[in-house]
Amino acid sequence: MKAQRTSWQLYEAHRENLLSYANRLCGDKTLAEDIVQDAWLLFSRQQVERIASPLHYLRTIVRNLLLTRGRRVSKAGLVETDFDIVTLNVEDQTASPEASVAAREVMRRVFDAINLMPERQRDALMMYHFKGMKLREIAAHLGVSHALVHRLIADGVAICDRIREEGL
């Protein structure tokens, strides 16, 4: 109990000095208060009689807490800034209602074109792009050569690209 009283007395006697020190290091009075309180919590757990220079030890705790906080803030990329100021120049990348309708119309036209393709070409395109099958698997399924499957898909994609470009 005597050691506890001694550490509290030391802290109380030098609290203003520690606040001034922390404020000089960080430039923020509120943060300095928080850091000094945290330093006291850490210091109060120590056995003061075993510490050669308790005041120096307290100042070291304050400095280390500020350094740790600075590293954490810089690593996390956190900056205490007003949200409205930060988001003022952020571009809204959501599509406008008109652009959404236009994109859906283009997709409808692309799917209509796929449905009108010859059966083999439509199947090859659907198996490759929508089912994730490999060219050799498609060739085996359709009973055609690997080169023909490649050409069917390439021609189908060219048709879809043409429709998409016309829709823009």
UniProtKB/TrEMBL annotation:
Segments forming domain RNA polymerase sigma factor 70 region 4 type: 109-156
Family from the record: Belongs to the sigma-70 factor family. ECF subfamily.
Domain of life: Bacteria
NCBIfam families referenced in this protein's UniProt entry, alphabetically: sigma70-ECF (TIGR02937)
Sequence ranges assigned to domain RNA polymerase sigma-70 region in this UniProt record: 10-72
Protein name, entry field: Sigma-70 family RNA polymerase sigma factor
Keyword annotations: Sigma factor, Transcription, Transcription regulation
Molecular-function GO term, any one: DNA binding
Higher taxonomy: Bacteria, Pseudomonadati, Pseudomonadota, Alphaproteobacteria, Acetobacterales
PANTHER family xrefs: RNA POLYMERASE ECF-TYPE SIGMA FACTO, RNA POLYMERASE SIGMA FACTOR FECI-RELATED
